[in-house]
């Protein structure tokens, strides 16, 4: 389901947040203009040879620049191919999942080999340096994701040429986040409704940043654009199904999820990732998931005895069951709800959108044996089984995350129902608010 308000062909201009990050970087190390920087109207804003500092921020942010600011900047200690390889090698030794994956290969260094052939023009090196210095969590995520993506590529016999392209795509897939408020990295920052559109647009921004460099093949741009798509068409920004997602895009979307889960969950991330992949088997490429699941299951079996009792399991399942019941109650109160059957309606009607997405979640939970009615019955049989309760809790947490994503997507597309809106729209908004009040 494509969000029609997102335009991948629009020109990219430096945002206030990006310019702020650049000037903040200049406070920690020398940043010098190698050429004059002009506004789109021809006003010279920064002279050649001038050192950038925080005082220039107000001047730069008041204008639309003729060209991206980083095409004219030199920074001391900029990332090089050698320093990038060294950082990746260090992360390979210290990051849990990349290390685990590397140990299964005959030559762990093969994960780093494509970096030597990857183009690294000065503008891209500047962006990655900015990420490394100003957004270290984003930098760590990008390098870890690159290593996971390379493992999946090698296991699936991806060509050497495509491996080089994949490295560039993985390292730059979240570069668009540099244009967003750093508050997005705060786990306590939970934007809802229309505010989430800023997050949804970041794959497009990242793709345009790579396009500006004019050195990477089209496959890099496409893969970056697709790194949040899903095989069942429920991803973003274009909502395309698996048949339309490129081979590199499929690797990238799975690597992104794997890296994110290992970053987010300190306790038993292997169990969490394994459950996510199995519970969402329609969302992720099965062939690639098969390269991860056996390794995850080994860790899961080894660590399960250490997992504390899943104390939140019962409450999580209760919320999920209530959400399904509340949705059925709202639909029953509407005359036309039985007509909500087509994907076309789901593009324009919030009630149809929720019906389709919630129905898909309901079906997946039933098929995988993790529907709340099934799990609630299971809890009664797990008294004292810490590992079993932990799995139920993880399933509940993942299902609630998916419930939250349905609400987020609905509120982003239809921020509010108006007095003149049909009863169906008000019912959809009421359900979203009800879910948010319980989560």
UniProtKB/TrEMBL annotation:
Residues 116-312 form the HD-GYP domain. It comes from the Bacteria. CDD domains: HDc. It holds the Pfam family HD_5. GO terms for molecular function: phosphoric diester hydrolase activity. This is HD domain-containing protein. It comes from Simplicispira hankyongi.
